[in-house]
Amino acid sequence: MTIITPTEQQEKSIGKLLYAYQHDAIESVFHRLKDHPKRYNLLYQLPTGGGKTVIFSEITRRYIRETGKKVMILTHRLELCSQTSAMLEEFGVSNKIINSAVKELPVPNDFMCFVAMVETLNNRLRDKMLSLDNIGLMIVDEAHYNSFGKLLRFYEKGVVLGVTATPLSSDSTIRMRDTYDELIVGESISSLVEKGFLAKAITYHYHVGLTSLKVGRSGDYTVSSSERLYNNHAMQDKLLAAYKEKCIGKKTLIFNNGIATSQYVYATFREAGFDIRHLDHSHTARERREILDWFRDKPDAILTSVSILTTGFDEPTVECIILNRATKSLTLYFQMIGRGSRVLPGKKEFIVIDLGNNLHRFGLWDEHVDWPAIFENPELFLEGIPSDELIERNYRYEMPEEICKRFSKSDPIHMDVPATHREAMSRGQRPKVVIEQSLQQHVQMCMDNSDTLEESLDLADLLKEEIDYRIRIYARCLSKTSESYVKWLQDEYKRTLKVTLIRNAHHVPDLDNPGAL
Length: 517
Fold this sequence. Notes:
This protein is α/β, with parallel strands linked by helices.
């Protein structure tokens, strides 16, 4: 195999050439295989976009050539079977896909390599239609799914090589360490970015209150609670505003945690005049192919989806990733962002918009991750993920500089809510005085920095993030408040702010008592 640089790679077929770090990984794997020719489970980690399929395709070619033994490659999706088979062919490895149409294989047969889905192969082995007796190496793609254990009772003589970007089991009850004897850690994301193999992620975070979300049996947020939060108008407006601010004109992929949410996103963007498509698992293969072809060919295409594109999807022209969801899955976090990390001539960076506080949960995409520690003690890592309540308590809103400039004629524009509350309590005043003072300040800010009612109302809209933050801090001062009360107070504050601005513009006396807040 030839070892090449990133620049040379862009001009040649990837299937027959290796990067230096890929070559080193292959040497490390074969070093272990020579020491453990039988019953040894080896796990190899490499970030999404690093070329895991390329690496295990070359391992397959070389293993067959050097040992004369056969190789079985397992995937968890039918599309990955086809992609893997095609890559193997590029490496000159003739292979047979074992799908639902394959009921049995004659023994002996001429195939040295097989590609199969875990469930399909398990069914064939269980029904004694196939045998793994002549397999020397079993390669498990996306090994973090940890679903191949059921096959081990049929496979007692050979070696297992699992490959994954995240050696953390998707099933919290099963540790990767219990399945694999050793972990080999590949090149890090930051190293691949620095060397030009992956694009650099420019991340923007928009705070979202997530305390209303519920965690299901899977350990991640439930679709129902996620849709209740992300389907409301405020979140749709925040998503659209984030897109307009950072991603407009760029090819954008939006990830959601529910079909209804994705459909709402589709409707919101369509109403705003943007060309967008929606994709979920209910689309037929033909519909999916047509949508993905459209996405590939249109420079500023927007595609909203539901998890379906987290694996087995490779579109290097993606320029912006929007996480319109929260997740407690480190694997999913890396998978979603990784869809934008492919490099192209002229593409060295891509944008990530986080609308789920995922940045505070896991850190930046290219930060160092201690994979050996996670492999050995995943429980410690999972316990260390900050809760939504902790993230909320530690959150500090900072008004963006561009918004501060819009209120340049006002001083001050900030407010210390806890200090104002303490002062009110020391004077024996009611807590709502804090809200009244805050509202008066915002009214004055909007009036001082506008010449018309329309301008003042536009300025009020710019204060939504700060209003939400002030109300949450105020509610915390009250000690015991429900999420529904906080939401009502936020909405009522924004409504009262606009009503007051309208009355002031038309010189209408304030007959109502805003003290209802």
